[in-house]
Amino acid sequence: MAKESTLRFGAQTDEVTSLLRIVNMVRTHEASTRPEIGRSTGLGRGVVTQRVDQAIAMGFLEDGDFGPSSGGRAPRTLRFRSERGRIIVCALGALHIHVGIALLKGDVIDDAHGAWDIARGPAETLDTAMGMIDDLLARTPDVPVWGVAVGVPGPVDFATGRPVAPPIMPGWNGFEVRRKFEQRYGAPVWVDNDVNLLALNERARQGDDHVDLIYCKIGTGIGAGLLSQGRLHRGANGAAGDIGHVRVRDSDVPCRCGKLGCLEAVAGGWALVRDAERAIAEGATGYLARAVADGETLTPEEISKAAEDGDAVAIALVQRSARVVGESIAGLVNMFNPSTIVVGGAVPSAGEIFLAEVRQRVYELSLPLATRDLTIIQSANDIREPLRGGAEMVREQLFDATFPRWFAEGRPTIESIFEPAE
């Protein structure tokens, strides 16, 4: 049925093209009244009225309040019916699960968060995550799910939704993450690296659809999301931006991936915890030492907080991490020439202690032209960032990449998106 509808609408190319454009203009606030649509598209008043009536009949648009008058009768505004569907976002980290529900305009309306070790494997992890999602769905109105975003802390083949040899995710290589969610929720699913979701959130936060940006996350592990003219660069196999496993000069520290001297093994959150515990065992004193003596478990967040509070061991660890990270980012700056670098994650939450070192190394080691207009900032450090980024990814895939394939159905289906129209 989906293919028949697509073919029927595909035969009316001009009509469908203008109809799609009008819906997207209203959805993105490019135009909000019929006269504005006419001026932007060049379509006649009668054609605009006909197309808008079709979009309303299909359930995409509805009339809103009256807009300001320019001398004659005030035009009625139009609005995209973003409440018609929900987006599920599941953001998996090395040590946590964060899930949320968003409307089609990207607003996260509910979320839940819990500690979790992703090394427990895909079956147990995804069952737990979907249980959390089901609890959220039960608390919200009975609105159909239009799309699902899943973020994982490792490389992903975006075309298939399968993790590809993720260093910190034993048992996940090639796992059918997409299928697991499709079977549960009956909606299209996209799986991506978690840092890519953060980069998309930052694009939306800055309101620049053409930004050249690097989002560098330094949490338990290290990774980067690359935006070129607003589009994610994932690479041929989903490994673009995996700077955590770039070799650090003169380092032979073992990494969890099995190699030696990786950036993550020197500057990642788990490396800072390892080195802090070693320093305390060797007699270091201060905030961290007292925390360990009181039976607390060290985390990257605790080390960053201790650095802000003036703990000498924590400051030294955070500054060393920032220097080494800055050297790796400098290489990206010379190659990629972004306008903005956003640094986020547990370790950079130490603020200027971390950021100042990163800036210094980047400007020391990068070409003057590449840094002439470069801005290096800390992320907003909002726990909902990956959820908003996941909603942005689904919205982009639904309305920019696949809209013509499922438009005639009135809502997306797995078949209309992942099976090419004939």
UniProtKB/TrEMBL annotation:
InterPro entries: ATPase_NBD (IPR043129), ROK (IPR000600), ROK_cs (IPR049874), WH-like_DNA-bd_sf (IPR036388), WH_DNA-bd_sf (IPR036390). This is Glucokinase-like ROK family protein. GO terms for molecular function: kinase activity. Belongs to the ROK (NagC/XylR) family. Keywords: Kinase, Transferase. It comes from Microbacterium immunditiarum. Gene3D superfamilies: 3.30.420.40, Winged helix-like DNA-binding domain superfamily/Winged helix DNA-binding domain (1.10.10.10). It comes from the Bacteria.
